[in-house]
Amino acid sequence: GAVVSQHPSWVICKSGTSVKIECRSLDFQATTMFWYRQFPKQSLMLMATSNEGSKATYEQGVEKDKFLINHASLTLSTLTVTSAHPEDSSFYICSARGKVGTKGDQPQHFGDGTRLSIL
Amino acid sequence: GQSLEQPSEVTAVEGAIVQINCTYQTSGFYGLSWYQQHDGGAPTFLSYNALDGLEETGRFSSFLSRSDSYGYLLLQELQMKDSASYFCAVRSFMFSGGYNKLIFGAGTRLAVHP
Fold it and tell me: Is A94 on the interface with B (CB under 8 A)?
C-alpha cells in the first residue's frame, strides 16, 4: 500500500526555535498533503491543506505565519513551526493523497507523526 | 461546516462484539472512513465507505447509511490488542477550493478487558 514517511519523529527544542517537519510520499505522487495537530487524548485537528505548487489553505484559527507549509514537489511537503513556544508542543501528523483514481488516493495514509516538545 | 459525533468511551471483554456509532453533518459528502490509533502512534486506516451498506474486512466491518448520515464500525472477536482509540472521519468536498479533506470525529476509546 501507499506509504507516507514523516521526519523527525521527535523534537525537543528551546522556546524561540523554528522547527521543520518533513512529510514524504514514498511510492506515489501526492497531489494533496494535509497537516494535522493532535493534543493528548484529543482528536486530530486539520491545520491546513496544500496542493503541489500552490499556497496552502489554512483552517480557521490556524496562523499561517506561525505554521509555514511548503509543498514544492509531488513527494514532499514541509511544515515549519516558526518561533516555537511551549503552547506549540503537540503531536503533528501529515497525510498525503494522490490523484483521484490512482494509487495513494484511497485510503488516505498518514505519516507516523512528530512529537514536538518546546521547553 | 462539518461535525461528527461518536461515543467517547466503550468497554468490552475479550471475544465480545462491539459497535461504535458515528453520526455526521457535512456538505459535499464523499465517504466515511474509520481509523485506529494506539496511544503514541499514528492513525491506521481500517475501512472506507462511499456507498450505503456493509464493508467487511476480517474481524472489522463498517456500515454506512447516507440518508441517515450515520455509520458504524463493528469489531468482532475482540482481542486485547484492539484496545485503542477509534476515529470516524468524513471525507467532504470543499467547493470553494475544489478539493476534498478528511475531518475527524473526537474518537472513541475502546478498552478490552480479559
Answer: no
